[in-house]
Amino acid sequence: MKLDFLTLDKLTDSKANMRSGRKEPDVADILPSVRARGVLVPLIVRPGIDADTFEVVAGRRRRRAAILVAEETGHAEPVPCAIIEPGDDAAALEASMLENMARLDPGEVKQWESFTALVKKGRSVEDIAATFGLPEPMIKRVLALGNLLPRIRDLYRRDEIDGATVRHLTMATKAKQQEWLALRDDPDTREPIGGYLKSWLLGGQTIATTVALFDLADYPGLIVTTLFGDDAYFGDAQAFWTAQNAAIEARRLAYLDAGWGDVTILEEADYFRSWEYEKTAKRKGGGVFIEVRASGEVVFHEGYLSSKEAKKRERAEAGGTGNGAKIARPEVSSTMQTYVDLHRHAAVRADLLHHPGIALRMMVAHAIAGSHLWRVHADPRTSRNDEVTESAESCHAEASFDAERRAVLALLAMPDDELSVTGFEYSIGGETLPTVFLRLLPLPDEAVMRIMAVVMGETLAAGSAAVEVLGETIGIDMANWWEADAAFFDCLRDREVLTRMVAEVAGETVAKANAGEKTKTLKGIVTAHLEGADGRTKVERWVPRWMRFAPSAYTERGGVPTVKAYAKVEEARAALAAPEPEADAGPEGEEEAQRLAA
What we know:
By secondary structure, this protein is an alpha/beta fold.
């Protein structure tokens, strides 16, 4: 690098300057100084494409101020310049960034554009961090903005969305980002932001990887992480709980092997209230209480007895002679109890294979009552739009399902004001699961099947591929269960879609004649045909394409979740229909096949 004085006519802006752009920079703050003393701090330049020209890598504002002074005075003074080697784009960009970032924070989006340019020119994250004296996680956080759609970056650049929202959006796929933007554009909905956005992206339950008791390296499920790199969450709550419960059970057995008197796993909704327990050493019979929280966090409370049990022991000691009677040692040690538990468990499940009817009832009981290995939840069936929620709650199909739910509640002798069969908490003797199972046991298979159908209906996820495959398998005709209402028409805003609906109910001639009309007019035509009003021919049993089984779209634009879900079903059907390659069974394989057939 060498220093020289160059005339203004030899200087041009460089694209490597991180503040380059069509708009001239604001120089009001430095113009008085340049008028009085000229340019004192050298510009950083490099040789240009044309001979005797130089590109300004850093110092664009100083050059602009010098040009304005020259226009005012009619005389252009040469300006001091530090000339760097030609052709080193990365070095030029680093020089620009170093000067600009030291003077004024250009914002994360502008930093992303510049850091990305450095990466493309061969600089690693480590190189960039060392050059600018910044921690590597910060560089990674800025580079993570590249996963965002350009429009989201622009919103962030204009401070229309906050940092927390951007942080969570880096976890989203491009499709999910598009869905979020659609919610933002919809005047009738509000896009999730901040902490709510994280919950929305992860399907309602956000469980951080930091709460896992198991080794993440062995976890087979999906882990979703922000591209900023410092937050990670489990993408599949069910897979997480399977691994977490196995780890909890292993810890329980380890405590028993260590000689603790008892190890109790509290139900998810049951918190450990310390005032209801007394601290008791292990040698005096103290136990361990394992508190499992909905967030996935597990807390181990060691060395406690319930107040009731502690008082019982005090009375036993007070009723003895001398300094107190010695507490009788249990006849079964914790290790022996584990031995007994595992062998009895093995025997029950082996014999259960020969009693599928009983197994069915136990499975239904688990689906209703749950356990520390089963977590089943009813679909909430709600919308942020009150009219949509009311429409779904008052429809014919919901009324029919609710009537059957009441009948099932009666079969199980449950209170008839329960909102759902799933999640039933009433019990006899404090154990919900055995209570439900014992009520199912004497019921005939037909009654159990009725109960199972209601439980399956309650726990069927709205908008999922499961709905699509069931609807097609059963052969559901939506016209038997649905007809257009005010809430349906309030949700319709797409004129192209409405035009195609007009063609369905009134014909192509009417649709073409009204193609340019407002959506209100198009809705009126569809409504009139469905009601047979205004002299129009009444159309019976009309159902929009998205709601049918199988569903289809009205346009080539896509963006219809039911169609996407159905496509997954078709992919699965095609995969199952594909012929599997025949393997050479050999003599042993043939014998096994004959044994299974027998």
